[in-house]
Amino acid sequence: QVQLVESGGGLVQPGESLRLSCATSGSIGVFTVMAWYRQALGKEREFVAGITTGAERKYADSVKGRFTISRDKAKNAVFLQMNSLKPEDTAIYYCSVPTKRQTYWGQGIQVTVSS
């Protein structure tokens, strides 16, 4: 039913920017919460940013002031603008949508920050 597909990742140098997109399909209505998670090599998956239908936002301390999450309610899409990227931001980024029945995940997209 619900499908999530991430795009916009890639390889960049420290200090540069990337914008991730998550396109969704199969939803009857607007998702209450949409979020981004990431998993670096050798580490557990961690929360990055989340946004509600009321545009309330929450960020991990490690990305506050650098990342901005936003959404398009009409399209049920969510975005993550990543500025001032650091090598420690390198990870696979996942789009996540929790629902009453289950939490949906995208396949993930690689973001690599290296000089």
Characterization of this structure:
The structure is a single chain. This protein is mainly β and 115 residues long. Helix content is 0%, strand content 53%. The chain is built from no helices and 11 strands. The protein has strands spanning 3-7, 10-12, 18-25, 33-39, 46-52, 57-59, 67-72, 77-82, 91-98, 103-105, 109-113. It is globular, with a radius of gyration of 14 Å. 30% of the residues are buried. The mean pLDDT is 95.
Which blocks of ≥5 consecutive residues have pLDDT under 50?
none
What is the mean predicted local confidence, pLDDT? 95
- Output the radius of gyration: 14 Å
Element order, helices and strands?
EEEEEEEEEEE
The share of residues in helices is under 10%
Structural class comes to mainly beta
Shape: globular
Total of DSSP H or I helical runs spanning 4+ residues: 0
Number of strands: 11
Distance between the termini: 40 Å
User: What percentage of the residues does DSSP assign to strands (E)?
Assistant: over 45%
* Multimeric state: single chain
Q: How is the biggest beta sheet arranged?
A: 7 strands, mixed
Structural features:
single chain, mainly beta, seven-stranded mixed beta sheet, 115 residues
What is the strand and helix layout of this fold?
Elements (H helix, E strand, L loop, with lengths): L2 E5 L2 E3 L5 E8 L7 E7 L6 E7 L4 E3 L7 E6 L4 E6 L8 E8 L4 E3 L3 E5 L2
Parallel strand pairs: 2-11
Antiparallel strand pairs: 1-3, 3-8, 4-5, 4-9, 5-6, 7-8, 9-10, 9-11
